[in-house]
Design a protein that fits this description.
Length: about 350
């Protein structure tokens, strides 16, 4: 019996060492150091610093050969010091602005379209949209980063991510009811447990922990199979309407103080419940969020689009009604708010036509 137990322990230890070496060799072949714990850093992000004001995101700046560049959400680089012949546009939004299909996103398509129309200019359209970003995230970027870039025009298109805060418990003016939760803060994954303390040195441990965690989470979401709903009425909560309008008005006020024109864009919406289900059924926060009835969600989203129109009119800023031009056509969408390539092309054409018609490239 003692020999069998000893053999079992030795075998388990040998398998663990083999697995550890295998993961580290794979990391090494992928460009990481054999000795560093790449999985721990990449998957758990324990060493990823908090970037003040940006909440979460990517590194906006890169220095190459002594010159500093702006880096868009998809890696395109632009000189931090704007060239004299450049017309610089910055696009703000959430995942619908970040939306990337077949190697392109709408700001890149817009850049190409405007560059064709104005070959004598250097057209720059910098995409700073990011998944889950709201008006609050974009305002932070605008005030603490983008103003230093001297943009000639900004495009702002938000809706669903701001609206989602109304369905998380205890809505707060800074949206911390959502973005202070464990679903968004990486430090919740970095807590020091006994297992982490014992095996934190092991790449195989972190690799296995993430894969098993993803597997169990997926089973849990699929077994739950849906989300909770309750009736909110056809008007979204009053506070979210006030906050959304306040933030858009702040965008306009800051831009006006720096003589930067603003195009506010409404957010297209595909109204079928099946398309909503594609995007939201297995979201990890569905155990916390209480969704409205689907007909109410459509009405709430429409109301926030109406607020965008109101702000553009009241603040004497430009408006592109993307939602009207998409006309609830499912061929533009992959789910209720994200786009196929055709949708990205439609967005780019909407903005390009508006900019050209209004002679905005000076």
């Amino acid at each position: 019996m003692k020999k069998n137990i000893a053999l079992l322990i030795v075998t388990a230890f040998a398998l663990f060492i083999i697995s550890e070496l295998s993961v580290r060799v794979i990391d090494w072949r992928g460009g990481h150091s054999f000795w560093s714990n790449a999985h721990r850093n990449f998957l758990v992000r324990e060493t990823k610093p908090v970037i003040p004001y940006r909440i979460y995101g990517w590194n906006l700046y890169k220095t190459i050969g002594g010159e500093q560049f702006i880096v868009s959400v998809h890696g395109e680089r632009y000189p931090l010091k704007k060239p004299g012949d450049a017309f610089r546009i910055v696009t703000f939004g959430g995942s619908t602005t970040k939306n990337f299909v077949d190697g392109v996103h709408y700001p890149l398509l817009l850049e190409r379209r405007l560059q064709e129309r104005y070959p004598e200019k250097r057209i720059e359209v910098i995409n700073v949209g990011n998944s889950a970003y709201t008006t609050i995230h974009s305002l932070s970027l605008f005030m603490f980063d983008m103003l230093s870039w001297n943009p000639d025009l900004i495009i702002v298109s938000h809706n669903i991510n701001d609206l989602l805060n109304a369905y998380f418990p205890h809505l707060t003016p800074d949206y911390s009811n959502q973005y202070g939760s464990k679903f968004y803060l990486p430090q919740y994954k970095n807590r020091l447990t006994t297992m982490n303390a014992l095996f934190g040195w092991s790449s195989f441990y972190w690799f296995g922990r993430e894969r098993i965690g993803d597997f169990l989470s997926d089973i849990g979401y699929k077994s739950a199979g849906s989300y909770r709903r309750a009736s909110y009425g056809n008007e979204p909560p009053e506070l979210i309407k006030q906050l959304f309008k306040r933030n858009l008005e702040t965008f306009a006020a800051v831009a006006r103080a720096h003589a930067i024109p603003v195009i506010f864009g409404t957010q297209p919406f595909e109204s079928s419940e099946d398309y909503f289900d594609i995007a939201m059924r297995h979201r990890p926060f569905n155990g916390v969020v209480i969704w409205p009835l689907h007909t109410e969600l459509i009405a709430h989203h429409k109301k926030l689009n109406e607020i965008i129109k109101e702000v553009a009119l009241e603040q004497n800023e430009y408006l592109v009604d993307n939602n009207a031009s998409f006309n609830d056509d499912p061929s533009y969408f992959v789910d209720f708010v994200h786009y196929q390539r055709k949708g990205l092309e439609k967005l780019a054409e909407n903005y390009a036509a508006f900019i050209i018609t209004n002679n905005m490239v000076k």
